[in-house]
Amino acid sequence: MIALTMPDGTVRSCQEGVTLLELSRDFAGNYGSPIAEGVIDGLGHNLQREIHHDAVIDFIEIDSEEGMRVFVRSLLFLFIVVTNRLHPEVEIEVRNSLGSALYCAIRGKELTQEELDGIEAEMRRIIKAKEPIGYTMLPREEAMRYAEQDPHLGPDQLGLMEMRPDVKMIPAVELLGQKAFFIGPVLPGTEHLEAFELIRFQAGVVINYPDTGNYRYLPPWSRHRRINETYHETEEWAAMIGCNTVSKLNRIIREGKADNIIRVAEALQEKKIAAIADRIAKNRKDLHFVLIAGPSSSGKTSFAQRLSVQLEVNGIRPIPISMDNYYRNRVDTPKKADGSYDFECVEAIDLALFNDHLKRLLAGETVKMPKYNFREGVREYRGDRIHMDDNSIFVVEGIHALNRRLTESVAPENKIKIFVSALTPMSLDDYNRIQTTDMRLLRRMVRDSQFRSQDALMTINMWPDVREGEEKYIFPFQEDADIFFNTTLIYEPAVLSKYAAPLLESVPREEKDAYFMAQRLLELLRFIEPLDDAPIPNNSILREFLGGSAFASAL
Hints:
It is a single chain. By secondary structure, the protein is of the alpha/beta class. The protein is 36% helix and 19% strand. The strands form five sheets. A five-stranded mixed sheet has the order 2-1-5-3-4. Strands 14-17-13-18-19 form a five-stranded parallel sheet. Strand 3 and strand 4 form a beta hairpin. Helix 2 crosses helix 3, helix 11 packs across helix 12 and helix 13 runs antiparallel to helix 14. It is globular and about 80 Å long.
């Protein structure tokens, strides 16, 4: 018998080999949506996982961020199984999220609308039939043989297994006779996957699924979101140079060819930044403000500095304006419902003063610039003044830079809006993707440790508030941008792995939620070959997080 501490704090004596699924049935009524995943001693597992030792048990429902990851993984598995059965000549490559949707590239043949409708109809039939999704632990050698022989799994999944020689048993899931290997749990059956639709898009298929919080409601998906094009362009470029999966990147690193990938990736970013500066110079007569916004850890500051260098190459003198200096005095800052200050909302900025200064600068006046004293929480004036010259342009960088209220005093033709984000093009293999939010969290974690004396626990605990602020105040304005710029570098997972893994290992088990996230991220990083950062140039956007940036004084 084994002793299991349950979510309600009680201790149960159970037969060795009991599954999480069996235990979950007694707790299903405690959750507002079906249980999607089990947790053993802080580590997430498929519900069919057997327990063979004393442990602390918990559960995760579908209507949560982690639960929706399980939902999407299960829906993807169903799509793969049905497509392989109906169109065995098709190869599926999972790419990236497009809002609350997942884009999959289709190779081998183009699926017609009729064929896609047939796939969706068969998926719905299987969902209605409540087909079980099996789960088993395969000996490493057997799993590798299966991956090698299955034409739909490919060498990348085999390459990931080779990265983990320490793992003797590999979890596999099975539906209607087809096996697959996912980095993360799936549901034990298909019955909760009703809310989805398949949409033809570019050279593939978009799987639209619910937002976190309501697994039954399917929001509409817009194919016209311009940020989709940025994702697609980055993915296609990574595929073109043969480095669009971690498995391929691992191979490049082991072969000693990573320096070239670093050079090529950095050169591409520099080329794109130079093109933006050229566009600004071409429209120099009317443009007076460059507005740069983006979510946390997107590399906005380094991008602004590199763009400023390229503007100078074009004979334009960039003048930085920091939005941070326009914060209201702390006592005047709006508050959240819990009484704490809301420094993320746009009203935390003195909008009237900011717009007044922009209007006066456009009129050719000299403006006395404020400086915010973060220690005292007050705005001060220290004698700094700026004005507009014939060859100058103002560069404004901050999370609210694209908010219409921030620059409502400036005519559209006088400003160009740039949205900067880190849209990772990298997947682990054709079926297992890396989420953009995970890479941004790793970036922030490394930077917080390097420069802000914050450990991984502090960063993880702050992350939900950061994400909430992004959803409310940043992402709603991204489609207003004139230009989208992706700051992700295809080699960065390997570099961040080296720095982030020790930080994640320090998160204590007692911090339940943070420990769960830390272990999930560590599991991801264990598939990535670490890469030394010495060859990375000092003007790289990644240096903003690692240290050694040529723009250190501005960061």
